[in-house]
Amino acid sequence: MINNIHSTTTLANGVKMPWFGLGVYKIPEGKEMITTVQKALEFGYRSFDTAALYQNEQGLGKAIHASSIPREDLFITSKVWNTDQGYDSTLKAFHDSLNRLQLDYLDLYLIHWPVPNLYKDTWKALETLYKEKKIKAIGVSNFQIHHLKDIMKDANVIPMVNQVEYHPKLTQNDLRTFCKQENIQLEAWSPLMRGRLQDNPVLIEIAQKHAKTVAQVILRWDLQNEVITIPKTTKVERLRENANIFDFVLTDEEMIAINGLNENLRAGQDPDNFKF
């Protein structure tokens, strides 16, 4: 049951991961980062998603250490950036992230993008770190079905999570079905499509019926589709509002209506055609 902010899903290896968390992309390092995380912790958030690219791992680490919440009650994700991919460089990048966060282990570590000719060696490094118990779970981000199949061909450990762009305009049905079949948990980045869905009449009508915001309806839709969601914001009111999605349920008809908004439209880069 997904009925509160601490509700978890169980990954393929038995690790429990919260269904809901905070993405910290573009939150500036320093005071703003620390304050945002501290507020989120007050509101019950326990899962935080960062990356080497975001350059704010240090602030997240400071906020964690300043809180009284036990480390085992938190779920911390980071990612290896494209320029650090490859076996040895990934091992180094991981330890650099861990040092910035001032943590002994990560709950989840992801390959940020499927860099051609590198992501398989990168995956081997993640498997090594997983075997050494430096990471509780390992996964990927922005991987299409063909990337996943390629990794799975000779992987010793199958990715446990695939974090992808996912929102009502990009429902990724085939990928979602494939991940479900393979017991890979799908996770949504940019679940609100960078604010571009606020004026959608279908979403507005559903939101009014439930006395909720469009953002709350989308985040609830994620959860009812069994997709982990990590909306990002630095606004205190939004932090509170985003987390307030456990007191209503979308009907089957409403879920179908939202699913029907799909246009295979991306707000971010195409994983088969990115230049970074």
Automatic annotation (TrEMBL):
Residues covered by the NADP-dependent oxidoreductase domain: 31-262
Family matches, as SUPFAM superfamilies: NAD(P)-linked oxidoreductase
Binding site for substrate: 112
Gene3D superfamilies: NADP-dependent oxidoreductase domain (3.20.20.100)
Site location (Lowers pKa of active site Tyr): 79
Single GO molecular function: oxidoreductase activity, acting on the CH-OH group of donors, NAD or NADP as acceptor
Superkingdom assignment: Bacteria
Residues annotated as catalytic: 54
Pfam families: Aldo_ket_red
Record keywords: NADP, Oxidoreductase
InterPro entries, A to Z: AKR, Aldo/ket_reductase_CS, NAD(P)_OxRdtase_dom_sf, NADP_OxRdtase_dom
Protein family per UniProt: Belongs to the aldo/keto reductase family.
Protein name, as recorded: Aldo/keto reductase
